[in-house]
Amino acid sequence: MAIAGVLSVGLLASACGGSSSDTSSTASGASSGDCSAYTQYGDLSGKTISVSAGIVTPEDTAYIDSYKPFEDCTGAKVTYDGNKDFETQILVRARAGNPPDIAIVPQPGLVKQLVATGAAKPAPKAVADNVDKFWSPEWKAYTTVDGKYYGAPSGASVKSLVWYSPSEFKDSGYAVPTTLDELKTLSDKMVSDGKKPWCAGISSGEATGWPITDWMEDMMLRSAGPAEYDKWVNHQIAFNSAEPTKALDMVGEYLKNPAYVNGGLGDVTSIATTTFQDGGLPILDGTCSLHRQASFYAANWPKGTTVAEDGDVFAFYLPGKTAGDKPVLGGGEFNVAFSDRPEVQAFQTYLSTDTWANNKVAATPNGGWISANKGLDASKLSSPIDKLSADLLQDPKTVFRFDGSDQMPAAVGSNSFWKQATAWITGQSTKDTVDNIEASWPTS
């Protein structure tokens, strides 16, 4: 689940820097007088484009800086508004007829709600062409509604990660697992060594429970496969059918196993009262060894913690059934327009290019941002966890799927799924949990 405030976001394709050769254009390119990647947008002097998002200070600075080359080379002015209540306010604004020109939308389900207001505008062909070129096909489907395409992906996160201590693995002779069976064997070995291998926390205010939804989605993707995962997310199979029920039970083999959890924090029920931010911290003092959480968790380690393959903490890919399987669960945002003025279409197209993706990396020198754009130059990423995540996203063997709860109706994805997951971790049965979520699914 990606939520604001918890996580910390036609023109011809060839006219917009839409080729890998454009990756040399960085955020400093415009200031050095190189506007070659922007000339086809034309002179937009005097034009203003408004952008709204749930990305706030200090993370918004890199976005604003990444827009400057477009401004400097076209003459356009881009205004940015970051709002912690973005996800509520953008719907209010769209329905009231005063939306921004472009919104950075963090969930496919919210995109569909915005399209339903009638305010969202289909993206120009250049955007669709860039997405065909730079992203795997599933990314395009997330903002295609009734056959019309509405917006290119922006940033991305990888959720299929397990955090660990490299020094503990080295000292104890543990190997990074390459299959789910090996992960289970590793967990059992840690128990036999006198450890509680796993730690977790799901407390997150009104969003308490969301980390379990990610766990379940990861297991559903691995046990049932991407086709059944898609059916589950779109309610083509019931939430309480066999495969989802099995997936939640697989999560229970870890999170409801008193021999496995909650290392350094308490018993199984302590997972519900431990904040998600604190869930992995026992790795640092050795009272926990493994913590399944997304790439964005890198921002939650205390200042001075080295996040690297040879550092204090790092992460490995949550493996599939076999070493050859590469299912990856993740999240991201999408640039959706509410105006089809030429300058807005030009800027929306810029945001779909590899030029912008690399400008954004250059504007984020301390790391913490990646894109699934295949034109992103991963060698320019400064953070080891960003590099790991980008490698996973760009791996041709990867089968990517977007966070399921972010695609489900709000009554389920950001309501009953969270609440029932919390009840489950504190003792409710798997059957009652999936039955209750199924009963909450909207009938229309």
TrEMBL record:
<dbReference type="InterPro" id="IPR050490">
    <property type="entry name" value="Bact_solute-bd_prot1"/>
</dbReference>
<comment type="similarity">
    <text>Belongs to the bacterial solute-binding protein 1 family.</text>
</comment>
<protein>
    <submittedName>
        <fullName>ABC transporter substrate-binding protein</fullName>
    </submittedName>
</protein>
<keyword id="KW-0813">Transport</keyword>
